[in-house]
Amino acid sequence: MEQSNYSIRITPHRCAGCYRCVRACSTGAIIIRDRRASIAQDECTRCGTCRKACPHGMISVRDDVDAVRRLLRTSDKVFASLDPAWIGSFPGIVPQRLIEALTLLGFSGVGETLLGHVKYDEATREQLQRHPRLAISTTCPVAVRLIRYHYPEQAERLLPLAHPAVLHARMIRHWQGQTTKVVYITPCIAAKSNPDEISELDAVVTFDELRRWMHEDGVEFDLIPGNDSYRFEPGEADCQPHRMPDSIASRFTFSGMEAIRRILEETAVWPAADGREPILLELFGCTGGCDGAQTQQEKDIPTVARTWARQRYYNERRPENPVYKLPFIPTVASYPPRPAERFRVAASQIDAALASIGKFTERDMHNCNGCGYETCREFARALCIGRAEPEMCLSYTRALAQKKFSSLLKRMPSGVLLTDADLKIVEANRNAARLLGPQAEQLFDSRQGLHGADLRELAPFADLLRQVLDSGGEIAEQDIRLKGKLLHISAFTVEPHRLAGALVSNLALRGIQSDEMIERTRRVIRENLETVQQIACLLGENASRTEAILNSIVTAAADESGKK
Ligand code: SF4
Ligand code: SF4
Ligand code: SF4
Protein backbone atom coordinates (compact mmCIF):
# COMPACT_ATOMS: atom_id res chain seq x y z
CA MET A 1 0.00 0.00 0.00
CA GLU A 2 1.13 3.56 -0.77
CA GLN A 3 3.00 4.95 2.25
CA SER A 4 1.34 8.30 1.62
CA ASN A 5 -2.06 6.91 2.75
CA TYR A 6 -0.80 5.95 6.18
CA SER A 7 -1.32 8.23 9.13
CA ILE A 8 2.43 8.59 9.74
CA ARG A 9 4.65 8.54 6.67
CA ILE A 10 8.03 9.59 5.37
CA THR A 11 8.61 11.56 2.20
CA PRO A 12 11.25 9.19 0.81
CA HIS A 13 12.77 11.19 -2.03
CA ARG A 14 13.55 14.07 0.31
CA CYS A 15 14.90 11.99 3.19
CA ALA A 16 18.47 13.07 3.98
CA GLY A 17 19.47 9.65 5.29
CA CYS A 18 20.66 11.00 8.64
CA TYR A 19 19.26 8.02 10.65
CA ARG A 20 17.93 10.16 13.48
CA CYS A 21 14.56 8.46 13.11
CA VAL A 22 16.26 5.05 13.42
CA ARG A 23 17.75 6.21 16.70
CA ALA A 24 14.42 7.61 17.90
CA CYS A 25 12.23 4.62 17.09
CA SER A 26 12.19 2.27 20.05
CA THR A 27 10.39 -0.47 18.14
CA GLY A 28 12.85 -0.73 15.24
CA ALA A 29 10.13 0.09 12.72
CA ILE A 30 12.30 2.28 10.49
CA ILE A 31 13.74 0.65 7.38
CA ILE A 32 16.69 2.16 5.52
CA ARG A 33 17.07 1.31 1.85
CA ASP A 34 19.23 3.20 -0.60
CA ARG A 35 19.93 5.61 2.25
CA ARG A 36 16.24 6.53 2.47
CA ALA A 37 13.99 5.84 5.43
CA SER A 38 10.55 4.27 5.37
CA ILE A 39 8.26 2.84 8.04
CA ALA A 40 7.35 -0.81 8.57
CA GLN A 41 3.71 0.09 9.13
CA ASP A 42 2.73 -3.23 10.68
CA GLU A 43 5.25 -2.66 13.48
CA CYS A 44 4.73 1.06 13.98
CA THR A 45 2.87 2.12 17.13
CA ARG A 46 2.31 5.61 15.66
CA CYS A 47 3.90 7.20 18.68
CA GLY A 48 5.25 10.03 16.52
CA THR A 49 8.68 10.04 18.20
CA CYS A 50 10.44 9.76 14.83
CA ARG A 51 8.53 12.77 13.56
CA LYS A 52 9.86 14.91 16.39
CA ALA A 53 13.37 13.57 15.80
CA CYS A 54 13.56 14.23 12.05
CA PRO A 55 15.53 17.45 11.62
CA HIS A 56 14.38 17.80 8.03
CA GLY A 57 10.64 17.60 8.63
CA MET A 58 10.35 14.57 6.35
CA ILE A 59 8.03 12.62 8.65
CA SER A 60 4.49 13.85 8.62
CA VAL A 61 1.04 13.03 9.90
CA ARG A 62 -1.75 12.61 7.37
CA ASP A 63 -3.90 15.71 7.23
CA ASP A 64 -7.58 14.73 7.27
CA VAL A 65 -9.17 18.17 7.04
CA ASP A 66 -10.14 17.75 3.39
CA ALA A 67 -11.67 14.36 4.16
CA VAL A 68 -13.78 15.97 6.90
CA ARG A 69 -14.78 18.81 4.59
CA ARG A 70 -16.00 16.18 2.13
CA LEU A 71 -17.83 14.37 4.93
CA LEU A 72 -19.57 17.60 5.93
CA ARG A 73 -20.61 18.25 2.33
CA THR A 74 -21.98 14.79 1.72
CA SER A 75 -23.51 13.76 5.06
CA ASP A 76 -26.72 14.84 6.75
CA LYS A 77 -25.39 14.91 10.25
CA VAL A 78 -21.77 15.14 11.38
CA PHE A 79 -20.96 15.44 15.07
CA ALA A 80 -17.67 16.42 16.65
CA SER A 81 -16.37 14.54 19.67
CA LEU A 82 -14.07 17.00 21.44
CA ASP A 83 -11.26 15.51 23.52
CA PRO A 84 -10.98 16.89 27.08
CA ALA A 85 -7.36 17.89 26.41
CA TRP A 86 -8.68 20.82 24.31
CA ILE A 87 -8.73 23.09 27.34
CA GLY A 88 -4.94 22.99 27.71
CA SER A 89 -4.34 23.48 24.01
CA PHE A 90 -6.63 26.46 23.43
CA PRO A 91 -5.71 28.69 26.39
CA GLY A 92 -8.17 31.47 27.12
CA ILE A 93 -10.92 30.02 24.95
CA VAL A 94 -14.28 29.24 26.57
CA PRO A 95 -16.17 26.16 25.37
CA GLN A 96 -18.96 28.21 23.82
CA ARG A 97 -16.50 29.83 21.41
CA LEU A 98 -14.96 26.55 20.35
CA ILE A 99 -18.38 24.98 19.87
CA GLU A 100 -19.47 27.99 17.81
CA ALA A 101 -16.31 27.73 15.71
CA LEU A 102 -16.99 24.05 15.03
CA THR A 103 -20.60 24.85 14.16
CA LEU A 104 -19.43 27.53 11.72
CA LEU A 105 -17.18 24.93 10.10
CA GLY A 106 -20.27 22.83 9.47
CA PHE A 107 -20.69 20.39 12.37
CA SER A 108 -24.26 19.60 13.38
CA GLY A 109 -23.28 19.40 17.03
CA VAL A 110 -20.36 19.01 19.42
CA GLY A 111 -20.17 16.54 22.29
CA GLU A 112 -17.59 15.93 25.01
CA THR A 113 -15.41 12.85 24.51
CA LEU A 114 -15.32 12.96 28.29
CA LEU A 115 -18.68 11.18 28.27
CA GLY A 116 -16.86 8.29 26.62
CA HIS A 117 -14.28 8.37 29.41
CA VAL A 118 -17.04 8.18 32.00
CA LYS A 119 -18.48 5.19 30.20
CA TYR A 120 -15.03 3.64 29.96
CA ASP A 121 -14.49 4.04 33.71
CA GLU A 122 -17.89 2.50 34.46
CA ALA A 123 -17.10 -0.47 32.25
CA THR A 124 -13.62 -0.83 33.77
CA ARG A 125 -15.13 -0.91 37.23
CA GLU A 126 -17.54 -3.63 36.17
CA GLN A 127 -14.78 -5.62 34.52
CA LEU A 128 -12.49 -5.50 37.50
CA GLN A 129 -15.25 -6.24 39.99
CA ARG A 130 -16.32 -9.23 37.96
CA HIS A 131 -12.79 -10.52 37.30
CA PRO A 132 -10.31 -9.01 39.75
CA ARG A 133 -6.95 -9.18 38.01
CA LEU A 134 -4.06 -7.14 36.71
CA ALA A 135 -5.47 -5.43 33.64
CA ILE A 136 -4.03 -2.91 31.23
CA SER A 137 -6.11 0.06 30.17
CA THR A 138 -6.81 0.52 26.45
CA THR A 139 -7.25 4.29 26.38
CA CYS A 140 -3.93 4.92 24.60
CA PRO A 141 -3.73 3.47 21.07
CA VAL A 142 0.07 3.62 21.14
CA ALA A 143 0.28 1.46 24.27
CA VAL A 144 -2.27 -0.95 22.80
CA ARG A 145 -0.28 -1.31 19.55
CA LEU A 146 2.97 -1.64 21.43
CA ILE A 147 1.54 -4.56 23.36
CA ARG A 148 -0.22 -6.23 20.44
CA TYR A 149 2.76 -5.99 18.08
CA HIS A 150 5.76 -6.14 20.34
CA TYR A 151 4.64 -7.72 23.64
CA PRO A 152 1.89 -10.03 22.35
CA GLU A 153 2.18 -12.27 25.40
CA GLN A 154 0.64 -9.40 27.44
CA ALA A 155 -2.28 -8.80 25.06
CA GLU A 156 -4.62 -10.94 27.17
CA ARG A 157 -4.28 -8.36 29.94
CA LEU A 158 -5.71 -5.56 27.77
CA LEU A 159 -9.19 -4.56 28.94
CA PRO A 160 -11.66 -5.63 26.23
CA LEU A 161 -13.10 -2.12 26.08
CA ALA A 162 -13.30 0.27 23.15
CA HIS A 163 -11.42 3.56 23.25
CA PRO A 164 -13.38 6.35 25.02
CA ALA A 165 -13.81 8.26 21.73
CA VAL A 166 -15.34 5.15 20.16
CA LEU A 167 -17.67 4.76 23.16
CA HIS A 168 -18.65 8.40 22.74
CA ALA A 169 -19.29 7.82 19.03
CA ARG A 170 -21.56 4.91 19.95
CA MET A 171 -23.43 7.21 22.37
CA ILE A 172 -23.74 9.97 19.76
CA ARG A 173 -25.24 7.48 17.31
CA HIS A 174 -27.55 6.20 20.05
CA TRP A 175 -28.85 9.76 20.55
CA GLN A 176 -28.61 11.13 17.02
CA GLY A 177 -29.26 8.11 14.85
CA GLN A 178 -27.01 5.35 13.60
CA THR A 179 -26.14 7.13 10.36
CA THR A 180 -24.61 10.10 12.18
CA LYS A 181 -20.98 10.63 11.29
CA VAL A 182 -18.53 11.27 14.10
CA VAL A 183 -15.25 13.18 13.85
CA TYR A 184 -12.91 12.91 16.82
CA ILE A 185 -10.98 16.12 17.54
CA THR A 186 -7.93 15.34 19.62
CA PRO A 187 -4.28 16.05 20.28
CA CYS A 188 -3.58 12.37 19.57
CA ILE A 189 -2.05 11.57 16.18
CA ALA A 190 -2.17 7.88 17.09
CA ALA A 191 -5.97 7.94 17.03
CA LYS A 192 -5.92 8.25 13.23
CA SER A 193 -6.47 4.95 11.54
CA ASN A 194 -4.60 3.50 8.62
CA PRO A 195 -6.39 2.59 5.38
CA ASP A 196 -6.24 -1.13 6.19
CA GLU A 197 -8.05 -0.66 9.53
CA ILE A 198 -11.75 -0.41 10.31
CA SER A 199 -12.71 2.39 12.66
CA GLU A 200 -16.01 3.49 14.14
CA LEU A 201 -14.75 7.05 13.98
CA ASP A 202 -15.43 8.55 10.57
CA ALA A 203 -12.39 10.80 10.82
CA VAL A 204 -9.86 12.11 13.31
CA VAL A 205 -8.43 15.60 13.17
CA THR A 206 -5.79 16.95 15.49
CA PHE A 207 -5.94 20.31 17.21
CA ASP A 208 -3.24 21.50 14.78
CA GLU A 209 -5.36 20.55 11.81
CA LEU A 210 -8.39 22.25 13.37
CA ARG A 211 -6.47 25.50 13.84
CA ARG A 212 -5.29 25.47 10.23
CA TRP A 213 -8.78 24.64 8.99
CA MET A 214 -10.32 27.49 11.00
CA HIS A 215 -7.71 29.87 9.64
CA GLU A 216 -8.29 28.77 6.04
CA ASP A 217 -12.05 29.17 6.41
CA GLY A 218 -11.78 32.55 8.15
CA VAL A 219 -13.19 31.22 11.41
CA GLU A 220 -11.05 33.11 13.94
CA PHE A 221 -11.61 33.05 17.70
CA ASP A 222 -11.19 36.83 17.83
CA LEU A 223 -14.24 37.21 15.65
CA ILE A 224 -16.43 34.72 17.52
CA PRO A 225 -18.38 36.15 20.44
CA GLY A 226 -19.04 32.76 22.07
CA ASN A 227 -22.77 32.99 22.30
CA ASP A 228 -24.18 31.16 25.36
CA SER A 229 -26.61 29.23 23.22
CA TYR A 230 -23.73 27.07 21.99
CA ARG A 231 -23.49 24.07 24.31
CA PHE A 232 -22.10 20.58 24.32
CA GLU A 233 -24.74 18.08 23.26
CA PRO A 234 -26.56 16.59 25.01
CA GLY A 235 -24.78 18.25 27.96
CA GLU A 236 -21.58 18.19 29.97
CA ALA A 237 -20.04 15.17 31.60
CA ASP A 238 -20.46 15.30 35.34
CA CYS A 239 -16.94 14.29 36.25
CA GLN A 240 -13.27 14.90 35.71
CA PRO A 241 -11.30 13.04 33.08
CA HIS A 242 -9.66 9.84 34.25
CA ARG A 243 -11.35 9.90 37.65
CA MET A 244 -12.34 6.33 38.32
CA PRO A 245 -12.51 5.99 42.12
CA ASP A 246 -9.17 4.66 43.32
CA SER A 247 -10.90 2.22 45.64
CA ILE A 248 -11.93 0.06 42.67
CA ALA A 249 -8.38 -0.95 41.91
CA SER A 250 -4.80 -0.10 42.63
CA ARG A 251 -3.85 2.10 39.72
CA PHE A 252 -0.39 2.51 38.32
CA THR A 253 0.16 5.07 35.60
CA PHE A 254 3.27 5.26 33.43
CA SER A 255 3.87 7.50 30.47
CA GLY A 256 6.46 7.93 27.73
CA MET A 257 7.67 5.23 25.36
CA GLU A 258 10.79 4.44 27.30
CA ALA A 259 8.94 4.10 30.60
CA ILE A 260 6.15 1.92 29.25
CA ARG A 261 8.55 -0.32 27.39
CA ARG A 262 10.52 -0.78 30.58
CA ILE A 263 7.35 -1.72 32.44
CA LEU A 264 6.47 -4.25 29.76
CA GLU A 265 9.97 -5.72 29.98
CA GLU A 266 9.67 -6.13 33.74
CA THR A 267 6.62 -8.35 33.97
CA ALA A 268 8.48 -10.68 36.31
CA VAL A 269 8.26 -8.10 39.09
CA TRP A 270 4.70 -6.98 38.44
CA PRO A 271 2.56 -7.20 41.56
CA ALA A 272 0.19 -10.14 41.59
CA ALA A 273 -3.48 -9.23 41.79
CA ASP A 274 -4.57 -11.32 44.75
CA GLY A 275 -8.19 -11.75 43.75
CA ARG A 276 -9.50 -9.08 46.12
CA GLU A 277 -7.70 -5.99 44.94
CA PRO A 278 -7.47 -5.73 41.19
CA ILE A 279 -4.68 -3.75 39.59
CA LEU A 280 -5.10 -1.37 36.70
CA LEU A 281 -2.03 -0.47 34.70
CA GLU A 282 -2.49 2.72 32.69
CA LEU A 283 0.15 3.13 30.02
CA PHE A 284 0.45 6.25 27.87
CA GLY A 285 2.77 6.64 24.90
CA CYS A 286 3.25 10.38 25.41
CA THR A 287 5.29 11.60 28.34
CA GLY A 288 2.81 13.24 30.67
CA GLY A 289 -0.13 11.42 29.08
CA CYS A 290 -2.41 13.05 26.51
CA ASP A 291 -1.53 16.53 27.80
CA GLY A 292 2.00 15.76 26.64
CA ALA A 293 0.89 15.00 23.08
CA GLN A 294 2.62 17.97 21.59
CA THR A 295 1.44 18.66 18.13
CA GLN A 296 3.48 21.05 16.02
CA GLN A 297 1.86 24.31 17.03
CA GLU A 298 1.51 23.45 20.68
CA LYS A 299 5.07 22.72 21.57
CA ASP A 300 5.35 26.12 23.22
CA ILE A 301 2.73 25.20 25.83
CA PRO A 302 4.48 23.07 28.46
CA THR A 303 2.81 19.79 29.37
CA VAL A 304 2.51 20.80 33.00
CA ALA A 305 0.70 24.02 32.01
CA ARG A 306 -1.77 22.01 29.96
CA THR A 307 -2.34 19.48 32.71
CA TRP A 308 -2.85 22.26 35.20
CA ALA A 309 -5.28 24.13 32.92
CA ARG A 310 -7.26 20.95 32.31
CA GLN A 311 -7.43 19.97 35.97
CA ARG A 312 -8.41 23.43 37.12
CA TYR A 313 -11.07 23.74 34.46
CA TYR A 314 -12.75 20.45 35.29
CA ASN A 315 -12.36 20.95 39.06
CA GLU A 316 -14.02 24.33 38.94
CA ARG A 317 -16.62 23.62 36.33
CA ARG A 318 -20.22 23.45 37.51
CA PRO A 319 -22.04 21.74 34.62
CA GLU A 320 -25.19 23.63 33.66
CA ASN A 321 -26.65 20.70 31.86
CA PRO A 322 -24.97 17.62 33.30
CA VAL A 323 -25.46 14.23 31.74
CA TYR A 324 -25.99 11.96 34.73
CA LYS A 325 -27.24 8.91 33.00
CA LEU A 326 -25.38 7.48 30.10
CA PRO A 327 -27.20 5.28 27.60
CA PHE A 328 -26.70 1.56 27.53
CA ILE A 329 -24.32 0.89 24.67
CA PRO A 330 -21.95 -1.97 23.97
CA THR A 331 -18.52 -1.22 25.38
CA VAL A 332 -16.59 -4.15 24.02
CA ALA A 333 -13.62 -4.24 21.71
CA SER A 334 -11.06 -6.94 21.18
CA TYR A 335 -7.31 -6.60 21.00
CA PRO A 336 -5.88 -9.90 19.83
CA PRO A 337 -2.11 -10.22 19.75
CA ARG A 338 -0.72 -9.35 16.35
CA PRO A 339 2.97 -10.03 16.71
CA ALA A 340 5.16 -8.00 14.44
CA GLU A 341 6.97 -10.27 12.04
CA ARG A 342 9.75 -11.72 14.13
CA PHE A 343 12.75 -12.40 12.00
CA ARG A 344 14.80 -15.23 13.36
CA VAL A 345 18.46 -14.58 12.86
CA ALA A 346 21.06 -17.18 13.77
CA ALA A 347 24.14 -16.12 15.71
CA SER A 348 26.29 -17.25 12.78
CA GLN A 349 24.39 -14.87 10.46
CA ILE A 350 24.99 -12.00 12.84
CA ASP A 351 28.69 -12.86 13.02
CA ALA A 352 28.85 -12.94 9.22
CA ALA A 353 27.12 -9.56 9.01
CA LEU A 354 29.56 -8.15 11.56
CA ALA A 355 32.48 -9.50 9.56
CA SER A 356 31.11 -7.85 6.42
CA ILE A 357 31.51 -4.48 8.12
CA GLY A 358 34.97 -5.27 9.43
CA LYS A 359 34.01 -6.26 12.97
CA PHE A 360 35.68 -9.44 14.06
CA THR A 361 36.45 -8.97 17.75
CA GLU A 362 34.81 -7.22 20.69
CA ARG A 363 37.34 -4.41 20.26
CA ASP A 364 35.93 -3.71 16.81
CA MET A 365 32.46 -3.19 18.31
CA HIS A 366 32.41 0.50 19.03
CA ASN A 367 28.69 0.49 19.90
CA CYS A 368 28.79 4.18 19.02
CA ASN A 369 25.13 4.44 17.94
CA GLY A 370 26.24 6.26 14.77
CA CYS A 371 24.10 3.89 12.70
CA GLY A 372 21.07 4.55 14.89
CA TYR A 373 21.24 1.17 16.66
CA GLU A 374 22.28 0.83 20.28
CA THR A 375 24.87 -1.86 19.62
CA CYS A 376 26.84 -3.20 16.67
CA ARG A 377 25.07 -6.53 17.14
CA GLU A 378 21.64 -4.94 16.87
CA PHE A 379 22.81 -3.21 13.72
CA ALA A 380 24.14 -6.50 12.34
CA ARG A 381 20.76 -8.07 13.04
CA ALA A 382 19.07 -5.21 11.17
CA LEU A 383 21.46 -5.87 8.27
CA CYS A 384 20.45 -9.53 8.25
CA ILE A 385 16.74 -8.74 8.02
CA GLY A 386 17.17 -6.05 5.38
CA ARG A 387 16.35 -3.14 7.68
CA ALA A 388 19.75 -1.48 7.41
CA GLU A 389 22.66 -0.97 5.03
CA PRO A 390 26.40 -1.41 5.74
CA GLU A 391 27.09 2.24 4.85
CA MET A 392 25.16 3.27 7.97
CA CYS A 393 28.12 2.08 10.08
CA LEU A 394 30.38 5.05 10.61
CA SER A 395 33.58 3.13 11.29
CA TYR A 396 33.00 0.85 8.30
CA THR A 397 32.38 3.85 6.07
CA ARG A 398 35.43 5.67 7.33
CA ALA A 399 37.59 2.63 6.74
CA LEU A 400 36.08 2.27 3.29
CA ALA A 401 36.69 5.93 2.50
CA GLN A 402 40.25 5.63 3.74
CA LYS A 403 40.79 2.56 1.58
CA LYS A 404 39.39 4.33 -1.45
CA PHE A 405 41.54 7.36 -0.78
CA SER A 406 44.67 5.25 -0.54
CA SER A 407 43.87 3.36 -3.70
CA LEU A 408 43.13 6.59 -5.58
CA LEU A 409 46.39 8.06 -4.31
CA LYS A 410 48.20 5.02 -5.63
CA ARG A 411 46.95 5.75 -9.12
CA MET A 412 48.30 9.29 -9.20
CA PRO A 413 51.12 9.73 -11.75
CA SER A 414 53.18 12.05 -9.51
CA GLY A 415 54.50 11.58 -6.03
CA VAL A 416 52.03 12.87 -3.45
CA LEU A 417 52.47 13.14 0.28
CA LEU A 418 50.64 14.77 3.15
CA THR A 419 52.10 15.89 6.45
CA ASP A 420 50.63 17.09 9.69
CA ALA A 421 51.71 20.21 11.60
CA ASP A 422 54.70 18.27 13.05
CA LEU A 423 55.85 17.29 9.57
CA LYS A 424 54.90 13.69 10.22
CA ILE A 425 53.72 11.96 7.07
CA VAL A 426 50.02 11.19 7.17
CA GLU A 427 49.78 9.50 3.81
CA ALA A 428 52.00 9.12 0.75
CA ASN A 429 51.92 7.15 -2.45
CA ARG A 430 54.64 4.84 -3.74
CA ASN A 431 55.67 7.32 -6.43
CA ALA A 432 56.56 9.81 -3.69
CA ALA A 433 58.62 7.17 -1.86
CA ARG A 434 60.36 6.21 -5.10
CA LEU A 435 61.32 9.82 -5.83
CA LEU A 436 62.60 10.30 -2.27
CA GLY A 437 65.04 7.41 -2.65
CA PRO A 438 65.70 3.84 -1.41
CA GLN A 439 65.41 4.66 2.31
CA ALA A 440 61.90 6.06 1.81
CA GLU A 441 60.98 3.20 -0.49
CA GLN A 442 62.10 0.65 2.07
CA LEU A 443 60.14 2.44 4.77
CA PHE A 444 57.11 2.59 2.51
CA ASP A 445 56.96 -1.20 2.51
CA SER A 446 57.22 -1.52 6.27
CA ARG A 447 55.01 1.46 7.14
CA GLN A 448 52.07 1.52 4.83
CA GLY A 449 52.05 4.90 3.11
CA LEU A 450 55.06 6.13 5.14
CA HIS A 451 52.54 6.78 7.86
CA GLY A 452 54.12 8.53 10.86
CA ALA A 453 57.55 8.94 9.24
CA ASP A 454 59.31 12.27 9.85
CA LEU A 455 59.60 14.16 6.56
CA ARG A 456 62.71 15.96 7.81
CA GLU A 457 64.56 12.65 7.91
CA LEU A 458 63.52 11.67 4.41
CA ALA A 459 63.45 14.77 2.25
CA PRO A 460 65.37 18.02 1.92
CA PHE A 461 62.19 19.98 1.19
CA ALA A 462 60.62 19.69 4.66
CA ASP A 463 61.22 23.42 5.17
CA LEU A 464 59.02 24.17 2.19
CA LEU A 465 56.11 22.37 3.86
CA ARG A 466 56.97 24.03 7.16
CA GLN A 467 56.70 27.37 5.39
CA VAL A 468 53.27 26.48 3.99
CA LEU A 469 52.08 25.13 7.34
CA ASP A 470 53.24 28.20 9.23
CA SER A 471 51.82 30.69 6.78
CA GLY A 472 48.65 28.78 6.02
CA GLY A 473 49.22 30.19 2.53
CA GLU A 474 48.35 28.59 -0.75
CA ILE A 475 51.31 27.26 -2.73
CA ALA A 476 55.09 27.32 -2.44
CA GLU A 477 57.33 25.82 -5.08
CA GLN A 478 60.93 24.69 -5.20
CA ASP A 479 63.28 22.75 -7.48
CA ILE A 480 65.70 20.50 -5.70
CA ARG A 481 68.34 18.00 -6.66
CA LEU A 482 67.99 14.73 -4.78
CA LYS A 483 70.16 11.68 -5.32
CA GLY A 484 70.95 12.73 -8.87
CA LYS A 485 67.35 13.58 -9.73
CA LEU A 486 66.01 17.05 -10.38
CA LEU A 487 62.68 17.29 -8.58
CA HIS A 488 60.05 19.95 -8.67
CA ILE A 489 58.11 20.31 -5.40
CA SER A 490 54.77 22.08 -5.18
CA ALA A 491 53.77 22.41 -1.53
CA PHE A 492 50.23 23.47 -0.73
CA THR A 493 47.87 23.91 2.14
CA VAL A 494 45.15 21.35 2.71
CA GLU A 495 43.96 22.61 6.10
CA PRO A 496 45.62 25.86 7.19
CA HIS A 497 48.29 25.25 9.85
CA ARG A 498 47.25 21.63 10.27
CA LEU A 499 47.77 19.72 7.07
CA ALA A 500 49.93 20.34 4.03
CA GLY A 501 50.54 18.37 0.88
CA ALA A 502 53.32 18.15 -1.67
CA LEU A 503 53.27 17.13 -5.29
CA VAL A 504 56.69 15.77 -6.25
CA SER A 505 57.63 15.37 -9.91
CA ASN A 506 60.78 14.38 -11.70
CA LEU A 507 61.75 17.22 -14.01
CA ALA A 508 63.84 14.91 -16.13
CA LEU A 509 60.81 12.85 -17.04
CA ARG A 510 58.10 15.41 -17.54
CA GLY A 511 57.19 19.04 -17.42
CA ILE A 512 56.34 21.06 -14.37
CA GLN A 513 52.87 20.37 -13.03
CA SER A 514 50.47 22.98 -14.12
CA ASP A 515 48.73 25.13 -11.50
CA GLU A 516 45.53 23.51 -12.54
CA MET A 517 46.88 20.06 -11.76
CA ILE A 518 48.05 21.16 -8.34
CA GLU A 519 44.64 22.59 -7.71
CA ARG A 520 42.96 19.37 -8.77
CA THR A 521 45.24 17.31 -6.56
CA ARG A 522 44.52 19.55 -3.65
CA ARG A 523 40.81 19.24 -4.20
CA VAL A 524 41.09 15.48 -4.28
CA ILE A 525 42.93 15.42 -1.00
CA ARG A 526 40.65 17.89 0.69
CA GLU A 527 37.53 16.13 -0.39
CA ASN A 528 38.82 12.80 0.75
CA LEU A 529 39.86 14.16 4.09
CA GLU A 530 36.43 15.62 4.54
CA THR A 531 34.94 12.34 3.50
CA VAL A 532 36.72 10.32 6.12
CA GLN A 533 35.54 12.80 8.70
CA GLN A 534 31.97 12.93 7.54
CA ILE A 535 29.03 10.78 8.38
CA ALA A 536 28.34 7.72 6.39
CA CYS A 537 25.58 9.13 4.27
CA LEU A 538 27.90 11.48 2.43
CA LEU A 539 30.32 8.83 1.29
CA GLY A 540 28.91 7.71 -2.01
CA GLU A 541 28.57 11.16 -3.50
CA ASN A 542 32.02 12.38 -2.48
CA ALA A 543 33.81 9.26 -3.50
CA SER A 544 32.39 9.34 -6.98
CA ARG A 545 33.16 13.03 -7.37
CA THR A 546 36.69 12.42 -6.15
CA GLU A 547 37.11 9.55 -8.53
CA ALA A 548 36.01 11.78 -11.41
CA ILE A 549 38.55 14.46 -10.48
CA LEU A 550 41.30 11.90 -10.13
CA ASN A 551 40.45 10.37 -13.43
CA SER A 552 40.73 13.81 -14.99
CA ILE A 553 44.21 14.19 -13.45
CA VAL A 554 45.27 10.82 -14.74
CA THR A 555 43.93 11.70 -18.17
CA ALA A 556 45.57 15.13 -18.11
CA ALA A 557 48.89 13.56 -17.13
CA ALA A 558 48.55 11.02 -19.90
CA ASP A 559 47.81 13.81 -22.37
CA GLU A 560 50.88 15.73 -21.23
CA SER A 561 53.04 12.63 -21.57
CA GLY A 562 51.59 12.07 -25.01
CA LYS A 563 52.46 15.61 -26.07
CA LYS A 564 56.06 15.18 -25.01
S1 SF4 B 1 5.80 6.51 14.84
FE1 SF4 B 1 6.91 5.62 16.57
S2 SF4 B 1 6.88 3.40 16.20
FE2 SF4 B 1 6.31 4.40 14.27
S3 SF4 B 1 8.25 4.54 13.13
FE3 SF4 B 1 7.95 6.48 14.25
S4 SF4 B 1 9.06 6.21 16.20
FE4 SF4 B 1 8.77 4.17 15.28
S1 SF4 C 1 15.34 11.57 10.44
FE1 SF4 C 1 16.82 11.61 8.75
S2 SF4 C 1 16.71 9.49 7.91
FE2 SF4 C 1 14.86 9.81 9.15
S3 SF4 C 1 13.30 10.55 7.71
FE3 SF4 C 1 14.27 12.36 8.62
S4 SF4 C 1 15.87 12.88 7.13
FE4 SF4 C 1 15.28 10.76 6.70
S1 SF4 D 1 -0.80 9.38 25.49
FE1 SF4 D 1 -2.73 10.19 24.75
S2 SF4 D 1 -2.19 11.52 23.07
FE2 SF4 D 1 -0.41 10.25 23.48
S3 SF4 D 1 -0.60 8.55 22.09
FE3 SF4 D 1 -1.56 7.93 23.99
S4 SF4 D 1 -3.72 8.46 23.80
FE4 SF4 D 1 -2.61 9.53 22.19
Automatic annotation (TrEMBL):
Keywords attached to this entry: 4Fe-4S, Iron, Iron-sulfur, Metal-binding, Oxidoreductase
Domain 4Fe-4S ferredoxin-type residues, every copy: 6-34, 35-64
Entry's transmembrane regions: none
Protein source organism: Rikenella microfusus
GO BP terms, alphabetized: regulation of DNA-templated transcription
Gene3D superfamilies with a match to the protein in the record: 3.30.70.20, 3.40.50.1780, Electron transport complex subunit B, putative Fe-S cluster, PAS domain
Domain of life: Bacteria
The protein's Enzyme Commission number: 1.12.7.2
GO molecular function, a single term: metal ion binding
UniProt enzyme class: oxidoreductase
PANTHER family to which the protein is assigned, alphabetical: PHOTOSYSTEM I IRON-SULFUR CENTER, PHOTOSYSTEM I IRON-SULFUR CENTER-RELATED
UniProt key word Amino-acid biosynthesis: no
Residues annotated as domain 4Fe-4S: 349-410
Protein name as catalogued: Iron hydrogenase 1
